[in-house]
Amino acid sequence: MPLPPARSDGRPEPERVAQAVARLYDTYPFPPDPVLAAAPPGYNWRWCWEAAYGFCTGGLAPRHSPRILDAGCGSGVSTEYLVHLNPQAQVWAIDISAGALAVARERIRRTAGDRPVDFRQMSLFDLDRPQKGLPEAFDWINSVGVLHHTADPTLALQRLAARLAPGGIVHLFLYGAIGRWEIRLLQEALCLLSPQDFPEGVRLGRDILAALPEQNRLVQRERSRWQLENQRDECFADMYLHPHEVDFTIDSLFALIDASGLVFAGFSNPEVWHLERLLGRDPELCQRAGNLPDRQRYRLIELLDTDIAHYEFFLFKPPLPMLDWQRSPWPDYFPRRNPCLSGWEEGCAFDQDYRVVHLTAAEVELLRLCDRLEPIAAIAPDRLNLWQSLVQRRLVFLAPPDNGG
Pairing mode, if any, of strands 263-267 and 334-337? Predict the structure, then answer.
């Protein structure tokens, strides 16, 4: 159900977009995760301040209470993780949907105890105006699945950038056009059928997929990729009935980033962007492609892998200190275990992406020595190669002397 443009330049009016998007999420608060009476299960390191900061810099986050903005919090699933994975943080959350915010408030009320979250019904575009009780700058802004539903993603990201403190980071999730090609086709088909409301649109969409031939590409794509999550009407409506959506390619993604004034820190699923997984069987071709500039290499990867349906990445506002193994005085640094590392004591751990990591006895010993809260020079100065391995695998972060004690 794309929103028809209402301006002479062909772009939709921001207010009309906001109202239509709010109606969808008032009808179907999203994400539809159940509201529980306990802390959320597991973790997502992308919502852990120390892990996210460590990913961007290689170093440990500053030891203070970070100010976090969940920009477009929806039903509060991300907000809940931000609260539980960052016990020292101050958290604010905004969204344009009153229905989604009601669910978010109830979710936090049940699980966060006395941890306050400042919820506000407002759009990203409202961030250019002073808001009582809202900080002028945030250390970390999380905005997952939001910018691509605004009338002007470039302006929306600029609004976020203006509220980001120097040295702050932004976590974003945006749709990719190539991997969502079939979705856009069914969206347009449903728009032609003009459902009167979102529940009717869900029914029509399911009827179409049931009526199409088994070999139809839309049916095959739905069943192979989306069917499990789309069993829930909330997910089906969010995917096929959204009133406004802007899908990106690598080229338009980096144009968006460049216009924001922020700096690209990296994709938070870097394994997807490794050429070797696609071209590794041909070393010569892999080497040739590897000589491309970063952005051209990313574009080549998305052209060759049509399953890439989103981009998940971090941006930052300079200056952000980057740890350099060759130049940093490592023995003076304080090692800290990645807080999203579990089971390491037995030598076989899950890393922050739930991948199995096998550790040597010497590596387990270094991880244990992190508890001493002393610099490397005081606990194991003769094992720099092992420390380097742990840091490169993001199992350990390092804090400089002025931030380690």
Answer: unpaired
Does a cis peptide bond (omega within 30 degrees of 0) precede residue 319? yes
Stretch (H or E) spanning 284:
helix 283-290
> Would you say domain 14-177+246-316 falls under CATH 3.30.460.80?
no
pLDDT at 134 over 70: yes
Q: pLDDT value at position 191? A: 94
Backbone phi, then psi, for 47, in 5-degree steps?
-110, 15
How would you class 167 by CB atoms within 10 Å of its CB: exposed for 0-12, middle for 13-18, buried for 19 or more?
middle
List Cβ<8 Å contacts ≥24 apart for 5-12.
Answer: 11/151, 11/152, 12/151, 12/244
Please report which residue ranges of 40-97 form alpha helices under DSSP H. Answer: 49-57, 77-85
Round to whole Å and give the CA distance between 71 and 362. Answer: 42
Please give the pLDDT value at position 369.
Answer: 94
Q: Could you read off the pLDDT of 271-319 as tens digits, one per residue? A: 999 999 999 999 999 999 999 999 999 999 999 999 999 999 999 999 9
Percentage of the chain modeled with pLDDT above 90: 77
Average pLDDT over the chain, rounded to whole? 92
Contact (Cβ atoms closer than 8 angstroms) between residue 163 and residue 136: yes
* Strand stretches in 160-286, DSSP E: 164-175, 263-267
Asked whether 182 and 217 are in contact (CB, 8 A), the reply is: yes
Instruction: Report the predicted TM-score, pTM, of the whole model to 2 decimal places.
Output: 0.93
Contact 29, 74 (CB under 8 A): yes
